[in-house]
Design a protein that fits this description.
4-stranded antiparallel sheet, WD repeat, alpha+beta
Amino acid sequence: MDAELLHSPVVGLSEEEEADMSDWNLPLAFMKKRHLEKIEGSKALAQSWRMKDRMKTVSVALVLCLNVGVDPPDVVKTSPCARLECWIDPLSMSPQKALETIGANLQKQYENWQPRARYKQSLDPTVDEVKKLCTSLRRNAKEERVLFHYNGHGVPRPTVNGEIWVFNKNYTQYIPLSIYDLQTWMGSPSIFVYDCSNAGIIVKSFKQFALQREQELEVAAINPNHPLAQMPLPPSMKNCIQLAACEANELLPMNPDLPADLFTSCLTTPIKILCKLMCVCVCVCVFRIPGRLNDRRTPLGELNWIFTAITDTIAWNVLPRDLFQKLFRQDLLVASLFRNFLLAERIMRSYNCTPVSSPRLPPTYMHAMWQAWDLAVDICLSQLPTIIEEGTAFRHSPFFAEQLTAFQVWLTMGVENRNPPEQLPIVLQVLLSQVHRLRALDLLGCFLDLGPWAVSLALSVGIFPYVLKLLQSSARELRPLLVFIWAKILAVDSSCQADLVKDNGHKYFLSVLADPYMPAEHRTMAVFILAVIVNSYNTGQEACLQGNLIAICLEQLSDPHPLLRQWVAICLGRIWQNFDSARWCGVRDSAHEKLYSLLSDPIPEVRCAAVFALGTFVGNSAERTDHSTTIDHNVAMMLAQLINDGSPVVRKELVVALSHLVVQYESNFCTVALQFMEEEKNYAAPSPANTTEPGNLTPVRESPAIPRLRSVNSYTNIRAATTARNLNKSLQNLNLNEEGGPVTFSPGNLSASSSASSTLGSPDNDEYILSFETIDKMRRVSSYSSLNSLIGVSFNSVYTQIWRVLLHLAADPFPEVSDLAMKVLNSIAYKATMNARPQKILDSGSLTQSAPASPTSKGTLIHQAGGSPPIPGVSSSSLTNEVPKPPTRDAPPTRPPYTPTLGTQGPPHSHQFQRTRKMFDKGPDQMTEDGEETPGHRNFISMALQTGLCDWSAKYFAQPVMKIPEEHDMESQVRKEREWRFLRNAGVRRQSQRIIQRGTTTLHNSTQHCTFQPYSALFWDWEKGERLDYFYNGNPRYTRITAMEYLNGHDCSLLLTATDDGALRIWKNFADQRNPEMVTAWQGLSDMLPSTRGAGMVVDWEQETGLLMTSGDVRVVRIWDTEREMKVQDIPTGADSCVTSLSCDPQRSLVVAGLGDGSVRVYDRRMGPNECRVMTYREHGAWVVKAHLQRETDGHIISVSVNGDVRFFDPRTPDSINILQTVKGLTALDIHPQANLFACGSMNQFIAVYNSNGDVISNIKYYDGFMGQRIGAISCLAFHPYWPHLAVGSNDYYMSIYSAEKRLR
């Protein structure tokens, strides 16, 4: 073989051959999201968009120190000079009237931005008037914000000592006013606007005084006797904002073309000042721009709208996020002032003036968005002459359409990792316009689809109030867009549920869900939103119940869209979770019966959601009636049918659902548990691992000791793989037999705690009362008759059946399912044991005890016990007996050793406990003599059992749904890797075909040494002769691996292992020196008895259809659909012996089985169970070693028995068409799928390779090399699917590879 061929990305295929590669048409099994990722919700992002301290400016103090007609002594004005104050020329009227007019104008200008505030003017005031004004406004404002506007154009400049100037009563003197005093009067929160020269001095002084106050507060807090502590505490100035017209060393501009209060004009009349400055030639029109400021359809309103969008955009792109939230989203008036402040900075810098703010903003006057503003103003002003003179219609600005286009370019052309789009605030402004709203919502939805980061970004900009308001719209065209956007928001931040219910937003989504003309995708998002609204939120549950949500959901259960069915079920499960009114509404609508149909849904996630809904249906905590009890029992028995579902996520949810029933009927299950434990105690037969049991006629051989395995970190890899001694520890510590001897190892107690299993009912160190061994024995040996005759409760068969289901699930091959069931079983066993023991409990600490509760509302949760478990070593079959302390063992690496410490005070007796406590309540606190809690007394977890399925399902809506999946993206790395693998496969097929066409005359040897264990898997690189990896399969020690298959061998390979207890396990990362992970596991065949003389479990895999055929020591051939993870067919074998070999052909739908009685049977799986056996061949006289169906249109059946007779059958004829006699004592046979070869291995220590004519190609009796020893008895052999290579395993622990081409060493 050309070794380089496998590693070359180019194999010389033509384009036609590449296009015809068959690998692309093969489906992949077990590669869905549920197989590739952990079933848990996404980590919640810290949401900072919601303003915790939203404020309102409720009072405004307008302090004007103009002293019209008298210039201050420290300012030398130019001539001519800027004179306009609030667009009024003070010299055009009397001084007093001018002052009053200016004050009134200033108030009107502020009222444009905050009309509801309380305004007070103080014109040319004294210190006392200012004090009185400020204290009065602060008193009325309470904790809200107050604005102080100071115009000091008629007084001297501020002093370096932190003083501004006012007047005396007679206006003969300028009186200083300390900023420190002003801080005291104004309090906090406040905003200060200073329009005067050298205003930066005030900002600096303000900060110094604020720091001084903070120091005073600290001194008073540290030393209560300090004089400052006796005085009223000064207010903190942390929440104060300042806006100043210029720096500390700058004068205000005196240009006669400008207003004297340029800073105030920028802050309060930005459009007016901009238009004045833009073009002197149209200044006549400037003051007559048509329209109103708040009417966006008019020129003035549109300019203001564009200005708001641009300044918001500049601030959002330049400012830190928290500062943007504080200044532009916390307070409407503050936001308006700071938008206008950005304009003031741009204008005043051109006149050598730098406005100052506190908190300080980064420079924004050079931002590129100002150019868009200049263009918008130019377009508007150019229309004014014709609008005013001729009355022509106003043409709206293309600004918003152009910005949406820019946003669309960012969305479609941008790279994966890029800066946020600067147009996002503009998109939100566009939502206010009906003209552009549809396009804006569409683009916004595309942006939110980029992921949770985009949703958080949009929320921080301020999307929430916009899209909340839009829910009041009745426009049908907006429905799909709004539903999509809200699904994205709630998938990231579910706390919005309260806002939706408060504004009746849930009614919008109820109408969408009930609309039959709405596409299924949008109804899915609507029901997801409603599921979030009712999730653990009683107000939402009540509102949606009144909105008829249950009836609407029940109508959608049969929808062909699987995701809709899934979320309808989840929504139903959430609305009646702990909400009895909804449960009874569901009962009236027969909701539970309608949900039964989803238990057989082809999609595992839908089945899982249905189990969740039925679990919460029986998990309500309200008082029980006979009617409700009957319903619960019916639901439980329906759920029990899923015990052998092929999907572990369904079985995990099943355990949780049944745990709800266990909680509600606690006392009944305690009774059942005690009876099962009594049965197990009276059953004398030891473990099945080393003896014969009734019903199992074949003795089970003792397995060899488990070798030391490397630690496997991944939990899904099957608990922690470690030494046999460590693996046995928890069982041997916990579960001694009557004589005190250790029990046999089993995997049920090997699991490390998982997030899904750390919730219910057993001690927190997982040292269970019921070990896996005990539970397994209960499951196998307890008799119905004895139980039914002794359990004195009604509906005993229901409780017994559910207990058996839980016992079965505790032995589940998937660790997380097993762990959850063990938690439930041990919680009840612990409670039942404590209830049954009135005498003093073991001296390891205090254990809880309470009476069995009848079905009641007290047990909504299963509580773990508040005390120590029995001393390790107490068998569940002898809980009332004192037992010797077990020998000390090495602790497993996955958890610390448990060493109970004896307390100084005896544990409580049963009469010390209240009779009405919840299950596993902590009970009376046991304290030592000095009041300390005894070291042996340990708290137990108390939390609801859950799987995380709903949160995991919700991740779908948080992640991109419009993005092309990586496997379909032609440029993605995943796609490129697949292409490389498929090109490599095609090259292997071509190269091997050439070798096969040349003919095979002999096979050459290449031998490697390895050991084989029946409960572990080893992987070798046969070309290099290196062992790659090995891992523990997780099956119990008394079972063995009897079959292995590669799944997805053409692409990302998975390994299937089948054991003789009927369990199937699928592994990934099994041979690449990483931790192997269990993808899934399920009970492929039930009621199989582990045996060394039987066939164990045999399987055959159809990659083309995703079907898995299973059989073995049973009387059926069971077919599993791996896509649906369901059993699709049971074909009766019609024989009393075991099935030893399976082979299938997807093209002809045929299944061929070789049996232990020598017969070869052909089944057509398209036919019913009674007619599907279409042919039976009885020509073999002994055990059939292999039956192979050639996958060709007219392919033959090739079979061989232990007697060595190879027979060829045509499925259309009743007799064999050819017979070849090979060697006796045949133990293994394989047929090459491509070449005309088959190989036989014998217990008599040799291998024979034949062609289909019966000619011997090779006889192999010795290993290669000088003095090569005799090969061992052959145990297994297999051909490579394409190359003429044969792998052989023998009982002497050697593995050999034989090739048609001599290997160069």
